[in-house]
Backbone:
């Protein structure tokens, strides 16, 4: 497995993956300590609740989402951000077509397989 991306990561050169219905993602840049991922959601798409050992910080680049973190639900929209601690339960429902910019530390090796 490759342990880091190229220095310049051009969207036109990066393949899209389809991890769930109505969701596409591009792993934009990474090394062993950090990963940046662009995730596009169709309206109504569900980011199934889950947990992982990575720290995650996410910026809402477009759209509106109902976000669950732990036991709290909030509506978030363009310009907002959120943080997820390691092993914290989280998920979302896309209320308006949207784009999330996820960062993970360490990198999500499972996204590279």
Residues:
């Amino acid at each position: 497995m490759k342990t880091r991306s190229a220095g310049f990561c051009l969207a036109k050169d990066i393949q899209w993956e389809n991890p769930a219905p109505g969701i596409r993602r591009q792993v934009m840049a990474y090394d062993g300590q950090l990963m940046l991922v662009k995730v596009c959601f169709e309206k109504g798409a569900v980011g199934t609740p889950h947990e992982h050992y990575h720290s995650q910080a996410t910026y809402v680049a477009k759209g509106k989402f109902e976000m669950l973190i732990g036991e709290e639900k909030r509506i978030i929209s363009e310009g907002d951000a959120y943080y997820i601690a390691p092993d914290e339960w989280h998920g979302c429902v896309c209320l308006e077509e949207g784009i999330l910019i996820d960062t993970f530390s360490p990198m999500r090796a499972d996204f590279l397989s």
Observations:
- DSSP finds no helices and eight strands in the chain.
- The chain has a mean pLDDT of 96.
- Residues 1 and 112 are 8 Å apart (CA to CA).
